[in-house]
Amino acid sequence: MTDAHTTGPFIAAIDQGTTSSRCIVFDRDGRIVAVEQKEHEQIFPKPGWVEHDATEIWENVQYVVAGAIEKAGITAADVKAIGITNQRETTLLWDKATGEPVHNAIVWQDTRTDALCKELGRNVGQDRFRRETGLPLASYFAGPKIRWMLDNVEGLRERAERGEILFGTMDSWVIWNLTGGTDGGVHVTDVTNASRTMLMNLRGLEWDPKILSSMQIPAEVLPKIRSSAEVYGTAKGGALDGVPVASALGDQQAALFGQTCFSEGEAKSTYGTGTFMLMNTGHEPVNSYNGLLTTVGYRIGTEKPVYALEGSIAVTGSLVQWMRDQMGLIKSAAEIETLASSVDDNGGAYFVPAFSGLFAPYWRADARGVIAGLTRYVTKAHIARAVLEATAWQTREITDAMTKDSGVELTSLKVDGGMTSNNLLMQTLSDFLDAPVVRPMVAETTCLGAAYAAGLAVGFWPDTAALRANWRRAAEWTPRMDAATRDREYKNWLKAVERTMGWIEDEE
Which residue range or ranges hold the Carbohydrate kinase FGGY C-terminal domain (predicted)? Predict the structure, then answer.
């Protein structure tokens, strides 16, 4: 598989994701040399509960690493560093002496800590820890999930207080096992993953003792917080024996890094099932008053940390799947572009897919999906167009919130993820944002980001300027819509959003 231009050395990136784990081998040009991927089981013990078997995940990680190295036709000696990226917020506690998880990992989507979060909010509510952590109190984050396990697994709190138990998000679990596990495994996390626990102070980048005591989490279980690009330790055993483990970034931050958004105002948006948009806000954390999260973007070695604002949209790609699977209006996801392109506009219809409430910037759990503006004139082609416009308008709302919070105008939007193959959607995005939209050559920006950070840590790439030079654009879209049309359509969209709210009435 290796040919003339892909002679080594290489960087390997492990992406421990929500549905699968994979390993990608990259060359010095940031090109993909080999990929191996394996899915793991999704466990649903009760409605709203989601778990993973961490032992299965570690076995899969070893499998994909060995597979990628074999496919590339190389050995550990050709690999200069390993980078890690991971599904964020998914929470695990394991026994230090045996390496056995004490419970399945509780996945980021899991909502079992809803009631606990309300209780933790006390008389302050959602924003109780927001100033320190940049996050609202929500079941999404890792801190409350740790507390849930300590409260619900027999004898666990005592073991944790005795220092027998380790906590980690999936980066920590993979790094601990890679570097030897029970035989000297390194217990660390990086600043981006730590910033999703609700336990780290954003300014000092240290665990916050006041929050730990409020959440009743013993400090003994916590990993050391390190930068996103530095050598944490060396892989022991397996296909990458002896290779330095040199980066960790939560998946969305890894994509920001892989898209080389190194300057203030540069943003990336990943279009998958849902959508995550991050904007680099420079060396100061920006408090959000518009429903966004403040998070660590990345930190390279001992350099100053770089912060980001993050907005998430619950339903984007999954709306296209819904059109296909539930409505039967299209036979394949790709067909939506053809159908939507057969008409010139939305025919007056607007589709707000608040299927599980609205995420950023509203955070309204009482909202439900709405198609507004229907007349006899509207066909399924208009609805298809409204579906694509929904993703673009939701992105515009987050962009507006980011500008309001940071005072920084969006210069351009770098995009990745499955939906970016839809050219009509990309043009619509550019029209609605009134900014260029750029898609890179290497679509696997999450893995690329982890590889870039690991490569920087070991001097494989000299600096971020070299990474920028490496980043290549595949396509760019520029705005074609006149301002009057844009403003009118946006106003209609916002009217439709209002009509989703208050649908679910509090039944408590």
Answer: 268-457
